[in-house]
Structures are given as C-alpha cells and as structure tokens.
Amino acid sequence: MVRGGGNPPPPDQGDTVRLDRWLCHARVFKTRTLAADRIAAGGVRVNGQPCRKPAQSVRPGDVVTAAVPGGVRSLQVVAPGIRRGPPAEAQALYVDLDAPAAEPPESRD
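^ thats the sequence. predicted structure below, dont judge the formating
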C-alpha cells in the first residue's frame, strides 16, 4: 500500500499568500503570530501602502517593508513559499532591497 507523503508540487509563481504567513516563511519574524501582531500594529507596508490586515495577499513582485527589531527591512517578494524552511530556503523567497550593492572588482593596471 502506497501512502501519500511525498513532497507537494511546487507553487505556481503567480500564487498569492497571506502576508503574515509569508513574513514567517521568509524568516522576517520568528512566528506567524508575531508577524500578525506587527501587521495589526501598523509596522508593515505593502507596495508603500500601510497594511493592518494579516490576511493581506502578497504575490511575487510586491515590496514589503517591515519594522523589525534592529531596524526596517524592505524586501521584494520573489516566491510565496510553501513552508518555514532553513535560512537558505527562506532567502530564496525575497530580494533584500536594503542590502548594499555588490562592488565591482578592482582592476589591476
């Protein structure tokens, strides 16, 4: 007898996901409850617009700005994510817009 337990199919890139869930999957907040509390308190913006609803949908291309301990993070959503995985998997869900740009290598003349 075969039991279903394999990996779920990857989500379509056009999928949407709840904002609180995405913030948890992307490891911006440790738990979904902390993410929902910060959203409800007004500490998160989606595409520059204030958001107070944890159920707000985000999709690839959206820019999420969140006030987190230690500063403010601006992240562009790349994928919705299917779970809260290891940090390397979480980093694949977004592009950090606050990260310093890579400097070109110095040329030796």
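The first helix runs from residue 19 to 25.
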